[in-house]
Structures are given as structure tokens and as C-alpha cells.
Amino acid sequence: MSPLLSESLAGLPPALIEVAEHDPLHDDGVQYADALRAAGVPVQLISYPSMPHGFLNFPRFARDAKPALAAVVKAQRKALR
User: Least buried of 7, 12, 18, 64, by fewest C-beta within 10 Å?
Assistant: First the structure.
């Protein structure tokens, strides 16, 4: 089930979408961000160049993992205020 197939994305909460350049799902993430924006949903899209799928799971080896995780924590804290 893909949220891209929904009839309407209006009314969804603000979203943080992180995409990795070498992830087979990269384009889906970008399309989802575009669809959310078109529906009036606030979106922060962050793209991580040269990163593979699952890079967040390897903070000791993937240079962008820690900043990406920090962005997730920041977005969650903001959402829970």
C-alpha cells in the first residue's frame, strides 16, 4: 500500500522525508513530498547524496547517518510540542 495512491493527502500532519541518493525508493520519496506539498501539507525534504538505502542503520560508517538521525529527532520533538 503506497500513500502515493491515496485519493487525497490533505489534512496530513507536517512531514519530514529523508531520501538517499542511491536508494531504489529515492524517487518515490521525492514524489511523495511533491504530492504532500500539492495537498497543502508542510514538508521538509532532505536528500543525502552518495548514501545507500538503509544508511541510517550505520551511523559508525555512513557519514550522513548521524545528521539524518538528528533531523528525525528534531522533527519528532517539534511534532510532540
Answer: 7
